[in-house]
Design goal:
By secondary structure, the protein is mostly helical. The chain is 77% helix and 0% strand.
């Protein structure tokens, strides 16, 4: 299997993301009414954008993999990871979450960022919480991991020596996408998580595993949000 080069990989990644966002924004304007300038504070808007954009993004990535003459599942590393690798990765993730929460507490930042409480409150008011949870816990991790740790990782890591710079660059790009949601500290946490997911992708050779870990992380964030709101 010969993956796309760096420039083509980056170009297809931008194309896939752009198509997904364009369709998602179109659906948002067609479905949602009201203030659409503060989408990141509107849980229903976040749900619509995420649920609509990601499938189109994923389909574009699959087509790009097929254009390279490769099996899409193999290209995107959608394989079944070893149970041992899953167990070790989960333990590392739990430790990383605990460390992140501890550091967050020590620097005086809220464990649950305002973005998470904002979208929860707005979704609760709209009666769309189930869609928000589906978007955050399931759809977003699939779309983001296939783009960053799947497609981009395949094109950026040509040789073992490429792994570290690729993991750092991909993690930085992924973190920058969250600038509208979190402050500098939150973005730094996202970057650190990206490095962890990139390392797991490199060692385990499976985007399926990073999707699972990403889902676990987002689920834990949802649980923390519920705890913070119900039992302050």
């Amino acid at each position: 299997m010969k993956p796309w080069g760096l420039a083509a990989t980056f170009g297809f990644a931008i194309l896939a993301f752009g198509i997904g966002q364009a369709v998602g924004v179109g659906a948002l304007f067609a479905i949602k009414t009201g203030d659409l300038l503060n989408v990141d504070k509107d849980g229903t808007a976040v749900s619509i954008l995420t649920l609509v954009a990601n499938p189109f993004q994923v389909v574009t990535l699959i087509l790009a993999a097929r254009l390279a003459g490769a099996d899409a599942l193999e290209y995107l590393a959608l394989n079944r990871p070893r149970w041992r690798a899953v167990g070790i990765a989960v333990i590392i993730l739990i430790a990383a979450i605990a460390l992140a929460d501890l550091v967050t507490y020590l620097v005086g930042k809220p464990i649950v960022p305002p973005f998470q409480t904002d979208i929860y409150h707005s979704s609760e008011a709209d009666g769309t919480l189930i869609w928000l949870w589906l978007a955050v816990v399931v759809v977003a991790p699939i779309g983001e991991e296939l783009l960053f740790r799947g497609f981009m990782f395949r094109g950026f890591v040509r040789e073992p020596r490429d792994s570290l710079p690729a993991i750092l660059v991909i993690s930085l790009l992924w973190a920058l996408l969250h600038l509208g949601q979190y402050d500098w500290f939150g973005v730094a946490v996202v970057f650190a998580l990206g490095v962890l997911l990139g390392y797991v992708r490199y060692i385990g050779g499976s985007t399926t595993l990073t999707i699972f870990l990403h889902m676990m992380f987002n689920l834990e964030s949802v649980v923390e949000t519920l705890i913070a709101l119900r039992w302050p």
